[in-house]
Amino acid sequence: MSLEEKINADIKTAMLAKEKDKLEALRAIKSAVLLAKTAGGVAAEINEAEENKLLQKLVKQRKDAAEIYVSQARQDMADVELFQSSVIEKYLPQQLSEEEIKIELNKIINETGATSAKEMGKVMGLATQRLAGKADGKIISQLVKTLLG
After folding, report:
1. Which of 27, 33, 122, 144 would be 112's cystine partner, CB 3.0–4.6 Å?
2. CATH code at 3-89
3. Which segments of the chain are extended strands (E)?
4. Do domains 3-89 and 98-148 have the same CATH topology?
5. pTM for the whole thing?
6. Dihedral class, residue 146 (left if φ above 0, else alpha if ψ from -120 to 50, else beta)
7. Whole-angstrom Cα distance, residue 126 to residue 72?
8. Rounded (10°) angle between helices 20-37 and 3-17
9. Is the dihedral of CA 61, 65, 66, 71 positive or negative?
10. What is the mean pLDDT of each run of 10 residues along the chain (149 residues)?
């Protein structure tokens, strides 16, 4: 079952259950998928990697907005954004733990032969490819800095 089919089924379920907040998050996903499919004026299918990248972008947008709302003392709005991000995260593949990410990064560092922070670009290039959809870019970056630092 494709992401789009899952979302459509979940939208129907949320409508029947009258889950307004969940429905809003699901419709945001559906909208983003439709926009991605029709980008460039031609309707085209998007692969799983592109879907994951799209979902990560939506989660990041929600979390960034929540941070802004918290800094402006608008916890009510932040809660809505965090709830939506949690709904969207359910459609992402299982995220790796920090220890699992460190293991993968050590493998990449050994492969590239990186020894200092100057060579962080080499490691980050491979790491973002291999860990796409499985780990947040900020966490990867922080761990690479500490491992090379």
Report:
1. 122
2. 1.10.1510.10
3. none
4. no
5. 0.75
6. alpha
7. 37
8. 150
9. positive
10. 89 94 94 87 79 88 95 95 93 86 88 83 86 80 86
